Amino acid sequence: MAEYPVITDDAALDAAVSVLASGEGPLAVDVERASGFRYSQRAYLVQIFRREAGVFLLDPPALSHFPALQEVLGTEEWVLHAASQDLPSLRELGLEPQQIFDTELAARLLGRDRVGLGAVVEDTLGITLAKAHSAADWSTRPLPPSWLEYAALDVLHLVDVRDILAAELVEQHKTEAAAQEFRAVLERPVKAPRADPWRRLSGLHSLRGRRSLAIARELWTAREELAIAQDVAPGRLVPDRSLIAAIAADPETKRALSGLKEFNGRASRSELDRWWAAFERGRTMTELPPDRVPSDTLPPPRAWADRNPGADARLKAARPLVEARAAELNMPTENLLTPELLRRLAWDPPASVDATSIAQALAAAGARPWQVHETAQVIAEAFVGSVQETVSPPETSS
């Protein structure tokens, strides 16, 4: 087993930066988090590889500054796999690429059936990567040698994969499309916080009454505060199903809550006072949450025939044509145009249904220029055809 030491002090980081600066070509970058174990999405390990420099493993919690690393790496192309997952954690460290190559996204655009990192490395290089530690708790210290080898291998071959995929993009005339997609990942705005995040409690739909919702909100808030304070994933303190079961059971006393076998989790008893206080707040508050909140979510397409027949006809006409175009381009339909964008366009089309207006609507909704080029005319023709079919009088037999 190869040894991969971890950089845990600023002097060693400065030395690594000097070596990386002398390397050649793009940099492969990956991040290991502790999702499912910790509340935060911070990076607990950053892996970097560059030709003529080698692999470097960085321990972010132990390091105090990254400006020198950003200065050296910032202007180079970074190769990442599923970049949208790693960029937020890197940005927390002040590490921000100006240009990326996303090997997962490239694989999707090329129509590859398997796009996970291990599959892409195997399909392009014939090298099999063990994925035994992909769901590990990377906040563990010290990190076991087998984990460090796994982490290093995630970047060791990534630049070679990038070169093969880049050549295939040229062969399939998709280089510009890929560049636009990579840029969109970099420039994607941060999502605004949800207005009522507690409504994402799994099983919330099973509760009845606004009072139950008030208790759910208070329990969720109490758990969230504890999770942040301890940097522990909320579900590891008390799972959603336990909160919902406790609300449904409607215990009359703190002792009754403690006696519920369905109310479990590592903090269900040690923080019993916290949970009971949340119950009491929810039961006594006068301002109750509404049963439902306004949403711009569209109804499910199966209900469109009754609620919006025109939209139903447009969607049914356009969807198979967009799918056919994606097949011609050898890529998944969702990468050519997201189903949600097509549904919204079918539900509320521009006043003038032609290729130009459809193109403008697609661009305003966030479609990239290459997507607009490939789909606007197809969608416009489908929408126009659906209207003609709807208004055409039925044929009569002579």
> What is the count of helical runs?
19
Query: What is the ordering of alpha helices and beta strands?
Result: EHEEEHEHEHHHHHHHHHHHHHHHH
The tally of structural domains comes to: 3
Rg value? 26 Å
Strand content: 5-15%
* Overall mean pLDDT: 94
Strand count, sense and closure of the main sheet? 6 strands, mixed
Shape: flat
**Strand order, sheet with most strands:** 1-4-3-2-5-6
What is the CATH first-level class name of the largest domain? Alpha Beta
**Number of extended strands:** 6
Helix coverage percent: 40-55%
The named CATH superfamily of the largest domain: Ribonuclease H-like superfamily/Ribonuclease H
How many angstroms does the end-to-end distance come to? 84 Å
Structural class: alpha/beta
Low-confidence stretches: none
What name does CATH use for the topology of the largest domain?
A: Nucleotidyltransferase, domain 5
Please state the second-level CATH architecture of the largest domain.
Answer: 2-Layer Sandwich
Please characterize this protein's 3D structure.
The chain is of the alpha/beta class. It folds into three domains: 6-187, Ribonuclease H-like superfamily/Ribonuclease H (Nucleotidyltransferase, domain 5); 197-284, HRDC domain (DNA polymerase, domain 1, Orthogonal Bundle), CATH 1.10.150.80; 301-391, Orthogonal Bundle (DNA polymerase, domain 1), CATH 1.10.150. The protein is built from 19 helices and six strands. Strands 1-4-3-2-5-6 form a six-stranded mixed beta sheet, sandwiched between helices. A hairpin with a 2-residue loop joins strand 3 and strand 4 (54-58). Helix 9 runs antiparallel to helix 11.
